[in-house]
Amino acid sequence: MLAVAALLSTLIGITLGLLGGGGSILTLPMLVYVVKLDARESIASSLFVVGVTSLVGVVAHARAGNVVGRVGAVFGVAGMAGAYLGGRLAHFVPAAVLLGAFALMMLLTSAAMLRGRRTGHTTERELAVAKALGLGFSVGVVAGLVGAGGGFLVVPALSLIGGLPMPRAVGTSLMVIAMQSLAGFAGHVAHVSLHLPLLAVVTAACVAGSLVGARFASRVRPELLRKGFGWLVLAMGVFLLGKQLPGALRDVGMPIALALVLVVAAVSLARGRAAAPGHATPLLHPPEPAENKPV
Which 3-state string (H, E, C) describes 233-263? Predict the structure, then answer.
């Protein structure tokens, strides 16, 4: 079982390093359905694995110039507070509801990523630091609550709302994911017992894979990265929702939610095909190089 977990974890790490997200949406199902850990231990373990892997992976992306430190700091600090709170709140919510909500958010996020960013210009007011803090905190709460690193939320936030080019959104997201995943883990760890040998193997394999993925991230077209991320999240969301549907059905009326998600996904895909790609406006504008500043 350790060998299988190590192999799958290496592939997960490659995905995380390449796409800047997807670690938690792959790690959590692997721990629950392959390794057979219970849901709460899987959530805590997933946060640790993704947090450490992202922390290592962000170094490689920073060397390639794909980490915007100010954006990462704003999202990360707010996300840490939110993730810790989400981790504490998670123990008051039934496990089936947590996993069902996780799957639904994945489907909604995939629709946004496959649709792409709308054309048009974003006003400076919309890009205020206060909005970034609020967005980071909200993403952190969700990430800590459902045991996700938040990459499937952070990457769309940075790319679609913040306007960062995909390679920079990928690199910056790893910084945010590392901060809020480890904060979320701190919120969970007091309430669960961990399988430490398994955790060490999975973490080491994910780290190795993330370094491989990071080497190729800058060589892949941004549009391909965005589409690949969207389809990955969609596939895993459908899989996880299918696994949790009977339990979640009793708790939250999942069929209605699923129907709404599928409608949103179909409309988003149709609009995405009809729309022309727009120009992104950075969330927090990085300083201009000295040679480009007006005299």
Answer: HHHHHHHHHHHHHHHHHHHHCHHHHHHHHHH
Residue 288 lies inside a defined structural domain of this protein: no
pLDDT surpasses 60 at 126: no
pLDDT band for 200, please (50, 70, 90 cuts).
Answer: very high
CA distance 217 to 226: 12
Q: Tell the residue number behind the tokens 């430490």, with chain if given.
A: 196
**Domain, as residue range, for 156:** 2-283
Residue 17 lies in a domain: yes
Tell me the CA distances in angstroms from 100 to 216, 218, 231, one per residue in order.
Answer: 33, 34, 19
Is the model's pLDDT at 28 over the cut of 60? yes
Domain count, the chain: 1
Judge whether residue 9 has pLDDT over 70: yes
Taking each helix axis from N to C end, the angle separating 222-252 and 95-115, rounded to the nearest 10 degrees, works out to 150
Count CA atoms closer than 13 A to 75's CA, side-chain side: 32
**Which residue, among 133, 139, 171, has the nearest Cα to 152 in the 3D structure?**
139
> Distance between CA atoms of 17 and 2, rounded to whole angstroms?
22
Looking at the domain assignment, is residue 86 inside a domain? yes
In a domain, 293, yes or no: no
User: Please, is 26 exposed, middle or buried when counting C-beta atoms within 10 Å of its C-beta (0-12, 13-18, 19+)?
Assistant: buried
